[in-house]
UniProtKB/TrEMBL annotation:
Keywords: Glycoprotein, Glycosidase, Hydrolase, Signal. It comes from Crepidotus variabilis. It comes from the Eukaryota. It catalyses: Hydrolysis of terminal, non-reducing (1->4)-linked alpha-D-glucose residues with release of alpha-D-glucose. Residues 1-29 form the signal peptide. InterPro entries: Gal_mutarotase_sf_dom, GH, Glyco_hydro_31_AS, Glyco_hydro_31_C, Glyco_hydro_31_CS, Glyco_hydro_31_N_dom, Glyco_hydro_31_TIM, Glyco_hydro_b. This is alpha-glucosidase. Its EC number is 3.2.1.20. Belongs to the glycosyl hydrolase 31 family. The lineage of its organism: Eukaryota, Fungi, Dikarya, Basidiomycota, Agaricomycotina.
Length: 983
């Protein structure tokens, strides 16, 4: 397996002579090939020479920063001109002599500090790619929560809160407050001169190297900076984090760069003297490759964050919070709110790589129905394609007309279909090999080019390929037409799955214009094929049987014990640069910590050229975002009036406006079950809230217990899909009785909670409020929660405490609120024993996931969860009210047709309970067809009587053991108001 994979995984015995080859090819699963690229051995050699080159030229010890020349204040902020101090420092190339600092108080909570080259030659992100507010109408300078402070010589700045001018600044680039000792080196391989000299904390602004360092309190809490599977979990490690920003096709590595780049962090500071906290956010709007480091010097009492970017400008935004939720909302206000999801998207999705034909695909639908496990959306991976080409279906195994019928059959049962779309477009092999998307694309000139203007050729699943240039004006229409034609040819999709869009390419850089395009194979063996059977035993099982078929029988002995940490290593270094003259597109001097080494490795070459001369080096991190926007717009055109449903792999700030995300190619390991929670939480910060992991794990063989726990956990994450690699043992939830049982139970809870999920996502799309929350988002003053990522909240009211380790029948979890909040069990309605800062142990037998409801809440539910979202929605509602100590509760529900785009009429219901009275008010013109059938009120401490519904006597029952009052069959019309009383 990968050198950084868990070492305790039991490997099967493999055929002796071929052993080595197979070990390598085992790692080469689809979508993440790059986990050990074919050029792996060469790589270490070239990394050596890169380091050597850096040694020769990297030097920032002489960098003295910039001095302020002029400064002009205005209504909205200020503009300062800076000039380089002394000789150019040449840390990694040419210094930029003249800089401009534009400070704008954009809103009361958002401060914009843009430091750019005065001549405006560095790459900046076009508005068409990431749209942000341009006209700042009002001047917020006076009313801003934040203050920009500066020193002239050398120039430095710091950000404070207006209300706390003397508190430790939120961001502070002054050298004098910096530690006397150098920042510890990144890792043992990080001893070359650039890093040593970069321990110098100077502000550096060069064409291909920008460095800025800010002090952080040593005991602070940092979240975000991704996309990352961090060994530290959701909260980032302040001593060892090196987050490289370079979109990368790799199976979820630990502590390395992955599919998306998100240079945003949320910082949460707790003041132990006052026992209160405040959060703020810092966002660097940059598409450049780079490293963001968190470091804590051994002496001194601060930590630092250091940005090392290899291009672009330093375009910072600061968000004042002061609550964690507010920070995330303020970020959403800047980059745009998440897209509205069609309500069927919340159903259960089933996929795998390796459904070989339409019959096998259909069989899954039938088997799910037979097992009575709700299936909302059936997916196909690239097996669907003819010759692995986008926008096709194989004429033998997935004929178009049969697919049309299959998808229509799904639709008639209120189910949906989603196919994959890969980033790369295959070249035609010869003149008789007609492939319309390619020829039309050539005619419309939509593909990325080499610097000399010839077609850029890469290699992906279909063989040699080209790649859409989203900057080209014709590309949108060409892409929309390709999707439309595909749909008309029978693949009548409801949504689209975008894969490989980092964008990935198997050649190291360009494959060259003389590549033998008749070769349509990939340079490795696919999983499940001879030579690459997925025969690794599920974690926790000893290997006792190893069959050559790749389909192993799991009858080993359970050997797992509580987890050992996944081993972590940074591996290779890469290179990165700018658009203007004097820029090295291929080998920028500063080597960012790209896990694949060279930036062009397993990706497009950094000199691949877009229209207007924009180069891949500057725009690489934007490829996925731009494809997502184009696909979203295409779907809007193909399915007018409906909300586009997209799930995509490579993301960038503002991707949430267009798409949801899955957490990429994970592993069928318990560690990745745990990582999935941090991943979902991280993407709440990134404003791509519709996210989830490949349930039961993608790479490797899963097992019953892991799949059981994972099907339960993912039922409480926004995107809920089981997906498996080709060649591994099947893992659909009906394959094991216990998993089927766990799935039915968890999905029933999920579908009951659908009105709640939907309301949370409406709030997300309108206000940017994160639907899934870390515990401290809701309880920011409880420090024991700052590092908790083994539990999470759905909204503010549903606490999920999943089992994350094998062989467990109990689980421990916090019940936040320090004893002032009553949490009631979802299933039994029993109240948990209040605690203060201590964990409770809960029973957690297989197939049971602990879910608790916060007091003071009122949650609208579907009373009768059904097989599909549509059937569930056709059933009646119920209302679960959970009173707090004061006998109060409050909640609301947003209801609309679940599909219209833009959203049409809606109705928002408000539930308010106090003093033995529950009032339901509604607002909005949407007509709710389904009635409210039952009302449950928890926390009614005394035997109640004299029940009235809108003044009329009504029956109710009272259960003293759980303090529950139940009004059954009230049959209330939710288009009117209601008052219910008890005494
Ligand atoms: C190192 O520098 C030399 C001389 O400039 C250059 O020829 C070589 O390609 C560089 N190597 C790498 C890996 O950047
Ligand atoms: C920097 O700005 C100064 C003052 O405007 C100007 O004289 C000088 O030519 C500029 N230098 C460069 C390298 O642009």
């Amino acid at each position: 397996m990968r050198h950084d994979s868990p070492t305790h995984l039991t490997m099967p015995k493999l055929l002796g002579a071929l052993g080595l080859t197979i070990l390598v090819s085992l790692t080469l699963a689809k979508d993440f090939l790059g986990s050990l690229p074919p050029q792996a051995t060469d790589l270490s050699l070239s990394v050596g020479s890169i380091i050597e080159n850096a040694t020769q030229e990297g030097n920032s010890s002489g960098c003295q920063g910039y001095n302020l020349q002029t400064l002009q204040e205005d209504e909205a902020g200020l503009t300062a001109k800076l000039s380089l101090v002394g000789e150019s420092c040449q840390a990694f190339g040419e210094d930029i002599v003249n800089l401009t600092v534009r400070v704008t108080y954009e809103t009361a909570t958002r401060l914009h500090v843009n430091i750019f080259d005065t001549s405006d030659e560095q790459y900046t992100i076009p508005q068409s790619v990431v749209q942000r507010p341009q006209q700042i109408k009002d001047a917020y300078r006076q009313s801003s929560d934040l203050v920009f402070n500066y020193e002239s010589s050398p120039f430095s700045f710091w950000i404070t809160r207006k209300a706390h001018p003397d508190a430790t600044p939120l961001f502070d680039t002054r050298l004098k407050s910096m530690p006397p000792t150098p920042i510890p080196a990144v890792d043992s391989s990080d001893t070359y001169k650039n890093t040593t000299s970069l321990n110098n904390l100077s502000f550096v602004f060069e064409k291909q190297y920008l460095q800025l360092t800010s002090a952080l309190p040593k005991d602070t809490n940092i979240y975000g900076l991704g996309e990352a599977v961090a060994s530290s979990g959701f909260r980032r490690n302040l001593t060892s984090t090196v987050q490289a920003m370079w979109a990368r096709d790799v199976a979820d590595p630990v502590d390395e760069n992955a599919y998306g780049s998100h240079p945003i962090y949320l910082e949460h500071r707790f003041d132990s003297a006052t026992q209160t906290s405040q959060s703020h956010g810092v966002f660097l709007l940059s598409a450049a490759g780079g490293d963001i480091l968190l470091r804590t010097p051994p002496s001194g009492n601060i930590s630092v964050i250091q940005y090392r970017m290899i291009g672009g400008v330093l375009d910072f935004y600061f968000f004042s919070g002061p609550s964690p939720k507010a920070v995330i909302e303020q970020y959403g206000e800047l980059i745009g709110m998440p897209t509205w999801q069609p309500i069927w998207g919340f159903g259960f999705h089933l996929c795998r790589w390796g459904y070989q034909n339409i019959a096998e695909t259909r069989e899954q639908v039938t088997s799910m129905r037979a097992a009575n496990i709700p299936l909302e959306v059936m997916w196909n991976d690239i097996d669907l394609y003819h010759a692995v080409r986008d926008f096709t279906s194989d004429p033998v195994s997935f004929p178009g007309e049969e697919m049309r019928q299959f998808i229509r059959d799904l639709a008639s049962s209120n189910q949906h279909y989603i196919p994959i779309v890969d980033a790369a477009i295959p070249k035609q092999v010869n003149a008789s090999d007609l492939y319309d998307p390619y020829t039309k694309g050539v005619a419309k000139d939509v593909f990325i080019k080499n610097p000399d203007g010839t077609e850029y050729v890469g290699q992906v699943w279909p063989g040699y390929t080209v790649f859409p240039d989203w900057f080209q004006n014709n590309t949108q229409d060409w892409w929309t037409e390709a999707l439309r034609n595909w749909s008309q040819a029978g693949i009548e999709f409801s949504g689209i799955w975008l894969d490989m869009n980092e964008a990935s390419s198997f050649c190291d850089g360009s494959c060259g214009t003389d590549a033998d395009i008749s070769n349509t194979s990939v340079p490795f063996i696919l999983p499940g094929e001879p030579g690459n059977f997925v025969t690794d035993y599920p974690e926790c099982y000893n290997s006792t049987v190893s069959g050559p078929s790749g389909n192993i029988t799991v009858n080993g002995t359970l050997t797992c014990h509580l987890d050992t940490a996944v081993s972590v290593s940074l591996n290779k270094r890469g290179l990165g640069a700018g658009k203007q003259e004097g820029v090295d597109l291929n080998t920028p001097q500063y080597a960012i910590h790209n896990g694949f080494g060279r930036l062009s490795n397993h990706a497009l070459a950094t000199n691949a050229t877009h229209v207007d001369g924009q180069v891949e080096l500057d725009t690489h991190n934007l490829w996925g975002l731009m494809e997502e926007k184009a696909t979203h717009l295409a779907l809007k055109s193909i399915q007018p009036g409906k909300r586009p449903f997209l799930i995509s792999r490579s993301t960038f700030p503002s991707s949430g406006r267009w798409t949801g995300h899955w957490l990429g190619d994970n592993f069928s390991l318990w560690a990745y079950l745990r990582h999935s929670i941090s991943g979902v939480l991280q993407f709440q910060i990134f404003q791509i809230p519709f996210v989830g992991a490949d349930t039961c794990g993608f790479v490797g063989n899963t097992d019953e217990e892991l799949c059981n726990r994972w099907m339960q956990l993912s039922a409480f994450t926004p995107f809920y899909r089981n997906h498996n690699i080709k060649g591994a043992i099947p893992q659909e939830p009906y394959r094991w009785d216990s998993v089927a049982d766990a799935s039915r139970k968890a999905i029933a809870v999920r579908y009951a909670l659908l009105p709640y999920w939907y309301t949370l996502f409406a709030l997300s799309s309108t206000s940017g409020t994160p639907p899934v929350r870390a515990l401290f988002f809701e309880f920011p003053d409880e420090p024991e929660l700052f590092d908790v990522d083994s539990q999470f909240l759905v909204g503010s009211d549903i606490l999920v405490t999943p089992v994350l380790y094998p062989n467990s029948t109990t689980v421990q979890g916090y019940f936040p609120g320090h004893g002032n909040v009553t949490w009631r069990d979802w299933y039994t309605h029993e109240a948990a024993k209040p605690t203060s800062g201590q964990k409770l142990e809960l029973q957690a037998p297989l197939s049971h996931i602990n879910v608790d409801v916060r007091d003071g809440s009122a949650i609208l539910l579907h009373a009768e969860p059904a097989y599909t979202i549509e059937e569930t929605r056709q059933g009646p509602y119920s209302l679960l009210v959970s009173l707090d100590f004061a006998g109060k509760a409050q909640g609301n529900a947003y209801i609309d047709d679940g599909i219209s785009n833009p959203p049409g009429p809606s109705r928002t219901l408000t539930f308010t309970a106090s003093q033995n009275q529950l009032v339901i008010n509604g607002n909005g013109s949407f007509s709710i067809q389904q009635r409210l059938q039952d009302i449950f009120i928890l926390g009614v401490t005394q035997v109640a009587s004299n029940f009235k519904l809108n003044g009329q006597a009504h029956n109710a029952t009272y259960d003293a053991t759980v303090q529950k009052l139940s009004f059954s069959n009230v049959n209330v019309d939710l288009n009117g108001d209601l008052t219910m009383t008890w005494a």
